[in-house]
Specification:
It contains eight helices and three strands. The protein is mainly α and about 200 residues long. It folds into two domains: about 60 residues, Helix Hairpins (Orthogonal Bundle); about 100 residues, Iron/manganese superoxide dismutase, C-terminal domain (minor pseudopilin epsh fold). Strands 2-1-3 form a three-stranded antiparallel β-sheet, with helices on both faces.
Length: about 200
């Protein structure tokens, strides 16, 4: 995904995911948290040649240079922009096509994969993201990453992600992260996952 230094439009209406994710949560999560990362990133790259590049390039370069402040804001902007597309009001159900075949190949079956992903997301301590990513060999991996970290810095291809920072679910579920994770499977966007798979697999 080529993501710019702008807050992207959501690919659906803010009320279309209720009650799994309510409009109020989108108002805060997208309208305030994500917007803050975008504004911070604009300020951090003002009058810098990096402002003419993609957010992916900014996060990779800032990670390489150990610029934590720049990386955190660039990565959180990229992660959130990606995450919104991992959800769909027409999503959920069982995976289809290539993503189904790869899940069956690498995890045995969908139920095993779902249980492993959900458990990983539930047990991730503190703030972070749970990713389904594809390594260079084409194998799918479930990767829990802290704070703003992303598989991009590990040379892996993001396929899906679930945001498990508290601001992603606290309005709707308070401290019950498990209920938010359960709801994710009712709106997960398998079409988007299929589009992200490595083309040579």
């Amino acid at each position: 995904m080529d993501i710019t230094l702008q807050l992207p439009e959501l690919p659906y209406q803010k009320d279309s995911m209720a009650p799994i994710i309510t409009e109020e949560t989108f108002d805060y999560h997208y309208g305030k948290h994500h917007a803050t990362y975008v504004n911070n990133l604009k300020n951090l790259t003002k009058d810098d040649p990096l402002s003419e590049t993609t957010v992916e390039q900014i996060l990779l370069e800032s990670h390489h240079n150990n610029n934590t402040l720049l990386f955190n804001n660039a990565a959180q902007h990229w992660n959130h922009s990606f995450f919104w597309h991992c959800l769909s009001p027409n999503g959920g159900g069982l995976p289809q096509n290539d993503i189904k075949q790869l899940i069956d190949r690498d995890f045995g079956d969908f139920d095993t994969f779902r249980n492993q992903f959900s458990t990983t997301a539930l047990k991730l301590f503190g703030a972070g993201w749970t990713w389904l990513a594809q390594n260079e060999a084409g194998k799918l991996e479930i990767i829990p990453l802290k704070d703003a970290s992303t598989p991009l810095t590990e040379n892996k291809t993001p396929i899906l992600t679930l945001d498990v920072w508290e601001h992603a679910y606290y309005i709707d579920y308070r401290n019950e992260r498990n209920k938010f994770i359960d709801g994710f499977w009712e709106v997960v966007n398998w079409d988007f996952a299929n589009k992200n798979l490595l083309c040579n697999i």
